[in-house]
């Protein structure tokens, strides 16, 4: 069974930002405990499938790194070393405005998950 696309993109970020060290990446983006991330790369015994990343993991990655949520979730846009969501870049100085953007993206994800 092949790793799901979103899990592949997260793995690529771990490789890029933390030299393929999941524990280091978890510290960078404040994911606790680290098994929440590492389990994404292993097939679960109980159902024989890879787990999907939680909204909390997606939120942490998007909020801590300069990553476009459309790249992370849908694979839209191209990931390069300097991927910058221009809308986010405007608000990096204001935590409140940044949180609004993150929450809007999380609402979109919630709607997609409930389809």
Describe the structure.
- This is HTH cro/C1-type domain-containing protein.
- It comes from Pontimicrobium sp. SW4.
- Residues 47-72 form the HTH cro/C1-type domain.
- The chain is mainly α and 115 residues long.
- It has one domain (5-113).
- Helices cover 58% and strands 0% of the residues.
- The chain has 7 helices and no strands.
- The protein has helices spanning 5-18, 22-29, 35-38, 55-64, 69-74, 86-91, 95-113.
- Helix 4 (55-64) packs antiparallel against helix 7 (95-113).
- The protein starts with a helix and ends with a helix.
Keywords:
mainly alpha, 115 residues
End-to-end span in angstroms?
A: 25 Å
Percent in helix = 55-70%
The tally of helices reads: 7
Order of helices and strands: HHHHHHH
Residue stretches low in confidence (pLDDT < 50, at least 5 long) are 80-84
Shape: globular
Q: Let me know the number of strands.
A: 0
Task: Please give the largest β-sheet.
Answer: none
Radius of gyration: 14 Å
- Give the structural class: mainly alpha
- Structurally, the number of domains stands at 1
Strand content: under 5%
Mean pLDDT: 82
Protein name: HTH cro/C1-type domain-containing protein
Domain HTH cro/C1-type: 47-72
InterPro entries: Cro/C1-type_HTH (IPR001387)
Task: Show the helix and strand layout.
Blueprint: H1 5-18, H2 22-29, H3 35-38, H4 55-64, H5 69-74, H6 86-91, H7 95-113
Helix pairs in contact: 1-2, 4-7
Can you give me a brief rundown of this structure?
The protein has 115 residues and is mostly helical. It has seven helices and no strands. Helices cover 58% and strands 0% of the residues.
